[in-house]
């Protein structure tokens, strides 16, 4: 037994190796237990008050890697042994790398959890593009910073490396101008939110429901059934009408009656029109007037607001108005005016006059 304790490996006695191994195991168990207890406590409190900071903290602690804790405990315990200067320097660099990796995992999870929490707590459904781009950019910064820090700690000249990355980035940007334009357009859509997934929009001569907003293009399901894919940069150049955010619809319609309609019946026509429109559900009457004298008719105009933005509801309401207006004009014995043309021979003249509908 004494011979085994007096034995040496790599310049350190067996007893020192045993103490270092025991210390590494004990340190790993304590650190792992502490992280597990803290994560469990945060999760329990987050369930009682969901959506808070503790939910993010539990997610971050859940990103702790057991193998990193074990490797870090072994490296720290190795500092209590006697090593040559070169080996001790390598241990320092390895410990720096392990700590940096665990910090990067925590930062990565912190970014993901924070953006997810923001997406869930928006008043309206968030555009997933902006969160995806922000997440990807933040993760790239975290891991690139870790890489540069590790290379700098290892003695690599990172200044030349950063300069080469800058030159390469300019070259890539010039070669992918259209892609980058669509990328920034998608970020603009995500931040400004002119429309979101599930909303009905019209742009140019096309209209449909937004199905997906990607990094390069937006996919829209048209009314005729096909899917329209349009580049984000081109879409932002169009005038976009978002019908899903319409709270009410203003409707203006008119009709004409025969020019020989008596004044009393014309006035009754306005009253009947007011009564018909005001009696409908989800409709707010605005005005009804006889607006002008035509060449062979009297013109009437009515304005009302549909309180339901659904297009089918508007068409149903307008149909009811038309049918009831036909009944009212029939009761009043008022005739709708329709222009007609009569062509006669060489001795006849051309005339245009209203005909009873």
Give an account of the 3D structure.
The protein has about 350 residues and is of the alpha+beta class. The protein folds into three domains: about 1-120; about 180-245, SH3 type barrels (Roll), CATH 2.30.30; about 250-340, Alpha-Beta Plaits, CATH 3.30.70.100. About 55% of the residues lie in helices and about 20% in strands. The protein has eleven helices and twelve strands. It has helices at about 1-5, 15-50, 55-60, 65-80, 85-120, 130-155, 160-175, 175-190, 230-235, 265-280, 310-330; strands at about 10, 10-15, 200-205, 205-215, 215-220, 225-230, 240, 250-260, 285-295, 295-305, 335-340, 350-355. Strands 6-5-4-3-7 form a five-stranded antiparallel beta sheet. A hairpin with a 2-residue loop joins strand 1 and strand 2 (about 10-15). The longest helix is centred in the first third of the chain and has 36 residues, at about 85-120. The termini are far apart.
Brief summary of the model shown:
The chain is α+β, with helices and mostly antiparallel strands and 357 residues long.
Q: Can you count the beta strands?
A: 12
Q: Tell the overall outline.
A: elongated
Structural class label: alpha+beta
- Largest sheet entry: 5 strands, antiparallel
Topology:
Layout: H1 2-6, E1 8-9, E2 12-13, H2 14-48, H3 53-62, H4 66-78, H5 85-120, H6 128-153, H7 158-175, H8 177-192, E3 200-203, E4 206-213, E5 217-222, E6 227-231, H9 232-237, E7 240-242, E8 249-258, H10 263-278, E9 283-293, E10 297-306, H11 311-332, E11 337-342, E12 351-356
Antiparallel strand pairs: 1-2, 3-4, 3-7, 4-5, 5-6, 8-10, 9-10, 11-12
């Amino acid at each position: 037994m004494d011979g085994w304790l007096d034995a040496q490996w790599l310049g350190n006695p067996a007893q020192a190796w045993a103490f270092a191994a025991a210390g590494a195991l004990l340190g790993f168990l304590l650190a792992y237990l502490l992280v597990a207890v803290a994560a469990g406590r945060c999760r329990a409190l987050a369930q009682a008050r969901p959506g808070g900071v503790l939910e993010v903290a539990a997610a971050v602690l859940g990103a702790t890697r057991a193998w990193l804790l074990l490797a870090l405990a072994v490296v720290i315990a190795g500092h209590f042994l006697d090593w040559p200067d070169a080996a001790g320097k390598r241990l320092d660099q390895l410990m720096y790398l392990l700590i940096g990796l665990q910090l990067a995992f925590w930062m990565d999870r912190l970014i993901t959890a924070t953006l997810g929490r923001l997406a869930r707590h928006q008043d309206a459904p968030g555009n997933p593009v902006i969160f995806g781009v922000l997440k990807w950019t933040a993760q790239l910064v975290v891991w690139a910073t870790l890489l540069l820090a590790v290379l700098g700690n290892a003695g690599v000249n990172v200044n030349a490396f950063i300069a080469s990355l800058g030159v390469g980035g300019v070259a890539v940007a010039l070669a992918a101008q259209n892609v980058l334009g669509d990328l920034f357009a998608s970020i603009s859509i995500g931040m400004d939110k002119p429309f979101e997934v599930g909303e009905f929009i019209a742009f140019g001569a096309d209209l449909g429901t937004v199905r997906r907003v990607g990094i390069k293009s937006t996919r829209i399901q048209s009314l005729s059934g096909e899917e329209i894919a349009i580049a984000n940069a081109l879409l932002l150049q169009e005038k976009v009408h978002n019908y899903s955010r319409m709270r009410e619809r203003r409707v203006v319609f008119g009709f004409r009656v025969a020019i020989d309609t008596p004044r009393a019946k014309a006035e009754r026509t306005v009253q009947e029109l007011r009564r018909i429109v005001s009696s409908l559900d989800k409709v707010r009457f605005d005005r009804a007037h006889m607006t002008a004298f035509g060449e062979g008719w009297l013109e009437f105009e009515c304005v009302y607001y549909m309180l339901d933005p659904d297009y089918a509801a508007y068409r149903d309401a307008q149909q009811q108005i038309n049918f009831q207006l036909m009944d009212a004009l029939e009761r009043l014995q008022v005739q709708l005016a329709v222009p007609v043309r009569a062509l006669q021979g060489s001795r006849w003249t051309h005339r245009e006059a209203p005909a009873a509908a």
